[in-house]
Amino acid sequence: MSETYSFGPFQLYTQLRVLERGGAVIAMGSRAFDMLVAMVQRPGEVVSHRELMAFAWPELVVEESNVRVQMAKLRRILGCGRDGMQYIASVSGRGYCFVAPLRNLPAASTSIADTHLVDTHVVHADIAERHGRPAWRRAAPAPLSPPIGRCGHLVELSRALQGARLLTIVGAGGAGKTTLAALLCHTLPALEGGTLFVDLSSVTTVAPLGEPLVNEILHTVASRRMLLVLDNCEHVAGDIAPLVERLLSSTTSLQVLATSREPLRVRGERLYPVPPLGMPPMTGPITARQAMAFPAVQLFMDRAMEGGYDAPLGDDHAPAVAAICRRLDGNPLAIGLVACRAALYGIDGVAELLGTQLALSWRGRRDAPARHGTAEATLDWSCNLLAARDRRILHCLASFPGTFTIDAAVAAAAPEFGTFAVTQSIAGLIEKSLIAVQDIGGNTALRLLDTTRLYAATRL
């Protein structure tokens, strides 16, 4: 069975997590999408409330009212009852049933080649080491909901790309690098040669692919303007850097947009550090209305409600949510992983548990890449790339509860490694987005994200 379904005017692509109507992608929350998939995969059968909760809220304990809220939202999206159309039937005391005529489309129809992917001029390339050649396929990463707090950053990114042959989006794990790159592909003016989107997260080396990959891209580019997006470069940066340099020196019609937790350090590279989501400052009491003006708080409440939290932000909880967002440095992934536990522990409980080891293992959305499944997995991805000395020095820096100076960091680790080695390691950890740099009153201060400090103290 393929993972593509058609019913009424809708097409459902479960693997891409896309619902379309008339070729247009419909924005919807992940919970409603999961519930739709659960019912579509069992057409004509009653899917119980308990089964829907297990499918849409894995590993979470939520009230049945959350199912009813999401089901009402899903019915509005589908237009149930409009023009006599009925897609989902309620079975009193038992659950819900998908009742519309449904077609399971053959695998050949699942590329969406004639819909929005061609319209947005995006080709997604999954690199697979098959006979030493990459396998290209059509599958644009489509946003499931409007980005929160990123519109201004997209404008900045678009301007930066205009004047660069190679632009690298850099930032910590979960900062939103891939999201920004994918959104940019959908907002750029159409290029004659289109866009190639390459996800490198699943490969361990691109060295064997170098020559075939270069030749294939150069053949595709020819003399047409094209954008090559290389996503998740940090673990293969040493192989990707010379490949990119050769591509850029071989043609003037190609631009490269890369995402990485550290720079590629290629000639002509321009960096775009991903800014954190806007957070409330530490300036005394804050009301819910004031807090909700900041994107980080908006994202927290959006993810909390997706996780089953069914109350709006009140003045009593606004300071706690603002403090959580500040502790997480406005990192979208970290905020989402924490916020989805608000229904289970409450906002005050989440704030209290944030500094414990439990927070490292809180799981996020089931469709997320494995490296984004938990805060621990995200940090594993980064820290497993470190040399033993860098890992040890990061562990030493975990003893600082807040900001610290470079001199204090050197003093903490120098007895074991020496001043020069520690200074080198700290520079590398900053470059790899594991240490944040802040300007406080004209002085340079360093800081570890709370989850990074906890991870370094307990895992390294």
From TrEMBL:
PANTHER family named among the record's database cross-references? HTH-TYPE TRANSCRIPTIONAL REGULATOR RV0890C-RELATED, REGULATOR-RELATED
DNA-binding is among the record's keywords? yes
UniProt-recorded name of the protein: Putative ATPase
Domain OmpR/PhoB-type as annotated: residue spans = 2-100
What SUPFAM superfamilies does the record tag this protein with?
C-terminal effector domain of the bipartite response regulators (SSF46894), P-loop containing nucleoside triphosphate hydrolases (SSF52540)
Species of origin reads Cupriavidus plantarum
Show the stretches that span the lipid bilayer. Answer: none
Could you tell me one molecular function GO term of this UniProt entry? DNA binding
Alphabetically ordered keywords of this record:
DNA-binding
Q: Name one GO biological process term.
A: regulation of DNA-templated transcription
Which Gene3D superfamilies does the record match to this protein?
P-loop containing nucleotide triphosphate hydrolases, Winged helix-like DNA-binding domain superfamily/Winged helix DNA-binding domain
Instruction: Extract the PROSITE patterns matched here.
Output: OMPR_PHOB (PS51755)
Read off the InterPro entries from this record.
AAA+_ATPase, OmpR/PhoB-type_DNA-bd, P-loop_NTPase, Sig_transdc_resp-reg_C-effctor, WH-like_DNA-bd_sf
DNA-binding region(s): which residue ranges? 2-100
Query: According to the entry, what is the taxonomic lineage of the organism?
Result: Bacteria, Pseudomonadati, Pseudomonadota, Betaproteobacteria, Burkholderiales
